[in-house]
Structure formats: structure tokens, C-alpha cells
């Protein structure tokens, strides 16, 4: 499969009529890494995914992939760039009248001139990767929601994409199936080295799966960066979302009145700072290859370590293997500090 590619988003803005969905979204998805986009319902996370792949056109900004700006390129070039993407939609988006084999084979038949013999080999490989060998002749209506997700994932991978987008992959799944799916995502990243972006509401997923996390809030990207930065953040909206508390600036349908939010924060008197303990990141299953993105991320993170909040620095240092923990940039970037 193709290795992942960096995606650079600059100043992106999207509206429907006069309603601003989000504005000035700027982030970089590092090549081959797993990134997660969080946010309250209605903040435009799925709209962002559709904008990335060119299904929706932003009013401003740029999306650079292989030196091509998807916002301003020709339709012909956009069609070619879209082939770099694989997408897992919320419900798997399978054709109900086709069995799983034909669903997975569909992109190959539509977009390539491969023979049926070649298609059979590719479909078999992808279905084995997601654990569906032997289920090829089943219809989507005959299988569980988790199996439909995996079949949709096999189809998303069938053209060997450089970028894979996951639109709430845990939607409709119980916690156990979500945990299995998260492990599968890590294993697939290890096998493919593709760039993954996952939109989710699931805090367990956000806490254990990604290399990087972003959060859309109040029509803007409130944060995006290494997982340790957001997961140790005490910013009220971030802390409220990560802890699932009612108290805070996020309301039922939209942001709360500022005065109300301040009253609630005062009532709990600092409890919002009590974030869950940082959990270890998922690693590939035994027998899977090592994730190539891990060493690239290590180099990238260590280069920016002195610019990060102290809590994130400590979390990053504590997560390092013993062989790498002896030396790391001291806080504030003043030389190196030996870690016993």
C-alpha cells in the first residue's frame, strides 16, 4: 500500500447560506500518523471531512496535498486527488443489494481496469485485513453493525489510499466493539503507513488511539496538536468535553451564556481541572509490524517539546521508552536535561 501523505489546511472557512459552520481552520495532518477530531454535536466535524475530500467547497482557505490546492484546483485534478482518499462512512455506506465481496470490489471495477482475477486477489487481501474472510457472500442486512463497519473499511482500503477518513466509526457500536475497531485501526495503520483522520465523540477512542487530537468548538478549531497537549489541557471547554461533565461552557444544543458558564465553573471550584489520568496509546497487536509513524512522530515532537505546556512535556517524557528517556529538551528549551 501507498505510504501516507501530509495534509496542510490553511485558513479554511465554510458556511451554509448565512450560517458560519467554522472559520480559519488551520492544521497539518502529519504523514502516516493517526489524528482525531473531537467536538460537541453540530460543530461541523463531518462537514470538515467532506471539505477535505472535495465534496463540499469552502469559501476561503486552502487544502494542500502533494502541492495541489484542492480548494482551487480544476475538477479534473480534484478527481485524481480524490483517488488518494479512502472513506469509512458512519453506517459503512454499503450497497444493500450487493454481497460483501461485490461491495468491496466496487471501487476497483469503477476506477481501475484490473481483471477479475486481480480483483479477487485484492478483495481477498483487504477482507482478510479486517477479519472478514469467509463472509464474502453475505449481504449487509445479514451481518452485525460491527461487521458492516469492517466491510466498509475493507472497501475504503481497496484502492490503497494514502489518506483514510473515518466519520464516527464508533457510531452505533457498543464499547466492546468500539475497542476492537480501535485496535483494528491501529493495526491497519501499522500495515499501511497511511495518514488517518478520525471524527469521533468517543472519549475512549480519543484517549487511546491517536497521535494527534483537534477539537472544533465555537465555530473554530480550538486546538490541534500532539495528543498529550489536549489530554492534559485544563481549558474549560476541553476539560468539560473530556470528562463528560454538565458544568462548563458547552450546553445541550449550543454554547451556554458566558455568565451561566462562569457561575457553574465557580460552583465546582476547580474540579474541571481534574482530568482523567492520561492513558497509554494503543500499540499494534502481536505479530503486526511496528508503526513507522512512531519514530517520525518522536523526532517531530522532541523538536517542538520546549514550546509545549509543562503538563504535556511531562506526559510526553513519561511515555518515552526507557532508551529514549535519558535525554530530552529541558523546559523552556534551555539545553538538555538527563532523566534518570
Strands in their spatial order, largest beta sheet? 6-7-8-3-9-10
Question: How many distinct helices?
Answer: 12
Query: How many DSSP-defined strands?
Result: 12
What sort of overall outline do the alpha carbons produce when their principal axes are compared?
A: globular
- Residue share in helix: 25-40%
CATH classification class of the largest domain = Alpha Beta
Query: What is the N-to-C order of secondary-structure elements (H for helix, E for strand)?
Result: EEEHEEHEHHHEHEHEEHHHHHEE
- What is the strand content? 15-25%
Mean pLDDT: 85
Q: So what's the oligomer here?
A: single chain
Number of domains: 3
Distance separating the two termini: 40 Å
Largest sheet: 6 strands, mixed
What structural category do the secondary elements indicate? alpha/beta
Named at the architecture level, the CATH assignment of the largest domain is 3-Layer(aba) Sandwich
| CA-atom Rg in angstroms | 21 Å
Keywords:
alpha/beta; 340 residues; 37% helix; single chain; six-stranded mixed β-sheet; Rossmann fold; 3 domains
Describe the protein in words.
The protein has helices spanning 45-52, 75-82, 100-111, 116-129, 145-157, 175-192, 203-208, 227-231, 236-243, 258-268, 292-304, 310-319, and strands at 7-16, 19-29, 34-38, 60-65, 68-69, 85-88, 163-167, 195-199, 212-217, 220-226, 327-329, 336-338. With 340 residues, the protein is α/β, with parallel strands linked by helices. The strands form three sheets. It has a six-stranded mixed sheet with strand order 6-7-8-3-9-10. It has a four-stranded antiparallel sheet with strand order 2-1-4-5, covered by helices on one side. A two-stranded antiparallel ribbon has the order 11-12. A hairpin with a 6-residue loop joins strand 11 and strand 12 (336-338). The longest helix is centred in the middle third of the chain and has 18 residues, at 175-192. It is globular and about 55 Å long. The model is unreliable at 329-340 (pLDDT under 50).
Amino acid at each position: 500500500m501507498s505510504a501516507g501523505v501530509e495534509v496542510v489546511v490553511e485558513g479554511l472557512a465554510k458556511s451554509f447560506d448565512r450560517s458560519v459552520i467554522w472559520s480559519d481552520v488551520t492544521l497539518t495532518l502529519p504523514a502516516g500518523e493517526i489524528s482525531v477530531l473531537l467536538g460537541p454535536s453540530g460543530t461541523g466535524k463531518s462537514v470538515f471531512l467532506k471539505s477535505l475530500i472535495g465534496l463540499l467547497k469552502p469559501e476561503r482557505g486552502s487544502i494542500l496535498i502533494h502541492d495541489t490546492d484542492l480548494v482551487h484546483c480544476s475538477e479534473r485534478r480534484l478527481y485524481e486527488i480524490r483517488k488518494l482518499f479512502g472513506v469509512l462512512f458512519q453506517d459503512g455506506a454499503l450497497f444493500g443489494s450487493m454481497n460483501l465481496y461485490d461491495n468491496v470490489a466496487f471501487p476497483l471495477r469503477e476506477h481501475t481496469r484490473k481483471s477479475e482475477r486481480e480483483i479477487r486477489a485484492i478483495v481477498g487481501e483487504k477482507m482478510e485485513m479486517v477479519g472478514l474472510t469467509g463472509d464474502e457472500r453475505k449481504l449487509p442486512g445479514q451481518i452485525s453493525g460491527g461487521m458492516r463497519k469492517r466491510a466498509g473499511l475493507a472497501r475504503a482500503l481497496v484502492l490503497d489510499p494514502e489518506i483514510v477518513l473515518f466519520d464516527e466509526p464508533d457510531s452505533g457500536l457498543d464499547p466492546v466493539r468500539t475497542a476492537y475497531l480501535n485496535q483494528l485501526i491501529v493495526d491497519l495503520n501499522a500495515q499501511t503507513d497511511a495518514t488517518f483522520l478520525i471524527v469521533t465523540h468517543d472519549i475512549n477512542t480519543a484517549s487511546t488511539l491517536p497521535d494527534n487530537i483537534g477539537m472544533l468548538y465555537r465555530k473554530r478549531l480550538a486546538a490541534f496538536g500532539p495528543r498529550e497537549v489536549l489530554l492534559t489541557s485544563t481549558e474549560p471547554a476541553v476539560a468539560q468535553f473530556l470528562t463528560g461533565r454538565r458544568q462548563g461552557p458547552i450546553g445541550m444544543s449550543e454554547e451556554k451564556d458566558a455568565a451561566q458558564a462562569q457561575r457553574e465553573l465557580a460552583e465546582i471550584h476547580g474540579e474541571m481541572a481534574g482530568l482523567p489520568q492520561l492513558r497509554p496509546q494503543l500499540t499494534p497487536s502481536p505479530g503486526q509490524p511496528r508503526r513507522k509513524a512512531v519514530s517520525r512522530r518522536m523526532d517531530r515532537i522532541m523538536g517542538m517539546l520546549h514550546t509545549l505546556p509543562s503538563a504535556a512535556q511531562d506526559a510526553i517524557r513519561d511515555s518515552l521508552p526507557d532508551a529514549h528517556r535519558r535525554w530530552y529538551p529541558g523546559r523552556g528549551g534551555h539545553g538538555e536535561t538527563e532523566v534518570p
